Amino acid sequence: MELPELHQIAEKERASQKPIRLRICVAAGCQSSGSLAVKKKLEDTVKEAGLSDKVQVVGVGCLKMCSQGPLVQADPTQTLYAKVDETQAAGLVGAVNGGHCHCATVDPNDPFLAHQFSIVLENSGLIDPERIESYIAAEGYEGLYHVLREKTPTEIVETVIKSGLRGRGGAGYPTGLKWALVAKMQSPRKFVVCNADEGDPGAFMDRSVLESDPHRILEGMAIAGYAIGATQGYIYVRGEYPLAIKRLQGAIRQAKRLGMLGGHIFESPFDFNIDLRIGAGAFVCGEETALMASIEGRRGQPRPRPPFPAESGLWGQPTLINNVETFANIPTLIRKGADWFSAIGTEKSKGTKVFALAGKITNTGLIEVPMGTTLRRIVEEMGGGVENGGTVKAVQTGGPSGGCIPADKLDTPVDYESLAAIGSIMGSGGMIVMDQSTNMVDVARFFMEFCMDESCGKCAPCRAGTVQMYRLLSKIREGRGTQQDIDMLNGLCDLLRNTSLCGLGQTAPNPTLSTLRYFRHEYEQLLTDSTVNGQLPKHPANTT
Amino acid sequence: MKRHQYQADSLIEVLHSAQQLFGYLEDGLLLYIAHSLHVPPSRVYGVATFYHFFSLKPQGKHSCVICLGTACYVKGATQLVDAISQTYGIKAGQTSEDGQVSLLTARCVGACGIAPAVVYDGTVSGHGTSENVIEKLKGWREDGAA
Prior knowledge:
The structure holds 2 protein chains of 2 kinds. Chain A is of the alpha/beta class. Chain A is built from 23 helices and 14 strands.
């Protein structure tokens, strides 16, 4: 396919759009609030009113404000209708046609929407995720075309290095360096793997991206494949996300049909295929070596690194593993250039980050903000603070590997280094807000139970350590703990962190450590000997 | 079913389809898969027991999955589990005696915006409370008895 043909598809798609469009969210969040029924009703109403040549109802991806679902946005007025139900369909269709309706609307100047800056989510809520034409009309696959026709793989790797993009899976390894490493390897077979095993409880960014804009991932992976010299890609997606799986399958089929995947993409010598691998519910499979084991059909157990996947990954071949969000940044980055990208964000953390705001907060949903935005802006301005007027006690980032950030640290900017400095991690982007009613020892125990269940059992520190820590936390929670137990807990944290095989064990103590650091009084209140302090010799690890 | 070219690495895919077809993975079924893919039975069993998704026991007619992700947990999902456990005398992961309802818990279904989320027979619904969960299960049991 040549560029004019691609433009032709885009033109045709744009021409087919009616003057008034009702975009209704059909991502999983709104679907569970009944958006499919609303969509059907809207379509019927439009047909009955004889407005079919003027008004069009389209299913789109996530419109971000999940707590207000089902959401409908009208073009060209951009009015965002919230909590639409079937009975309001007639009124809504009337309203876009010049009338009025009693539907609740969201103010477009609401901080939740106004402070967003979209790269990864730029098409989310605008395009129909089930039609490739819709993505092409939004300049999709154009980046891939230019890459294959005009650039060398080395140029692409250099662009990515220059952009300063870092892995969005949590650890923040520079993406460009990873690509360069795999590109350098001499091997006839290389692989590109997209890690869509979003296991963090309370995180749903990757799911939304996959459901709202699946072609973006395919394009990002194809560009990566060209840059590092791979011809096969895998997307490892959680079994818990049936809708994302369905949309990805559809997207791969459509892309193959139009020749954006498969042999001789855009009539170039480059071949690239993508297959889907469906996970079966194991948190540890988000760890890259465990993920590869799972793709190969084995138990998802990690192995020691090095060798890193870049040298010896899937079936012993060099493998590039990136997170969904990382790949989702690529098409826009390539289209707009490294300089444009590196102008966004902070000195060391470039670009934007998507967060899933949830917990006891007024506006739950998806936000994408430039790196360096403060937690206070995210939680208090955009999130609207704690629901029902409560006050924030802590914000949890990074899921079971992250930490709890107390309310007085809310002015911390969100970037990899700043979050690490206060004992949490960026993580994949789950952000859970807790209010005064949340007991922090409970939270620590909850995460420890999670890690205990999810530990694969390969290495002893993690297998046995998480169980011991869980028992200690339970003991303290039930009011049977002593000062000695806290010391022991601290010691175990140290042990797990330094001796576990993989990221799961190494980061499992984080929630406990951060709550011990900032909410120690809550632990001490529960001790039986809470008045007897400092009676025992302090463990060296106690000086956090 | 075995259109995965009998490749050993498709084991997880095969187990997925097997569970979809039969509801759960019987010992005989696992052996059959092992022979067909030319992998040792120990490996098939190992994989099947490693992943939470696969079940080696028959499930109830209906399934009620309570999400215990962080967001749902903060919003009180454990109370839902307790409510069901008390009413039906089953713990998470068990099936009620009449084989009607299986109570399961999930790590996160990704519906955090509408926490606490409950998945009834594969349909996600949000804002679960002890009352509406029990109500729903009661409906199932009455359907089963009728």
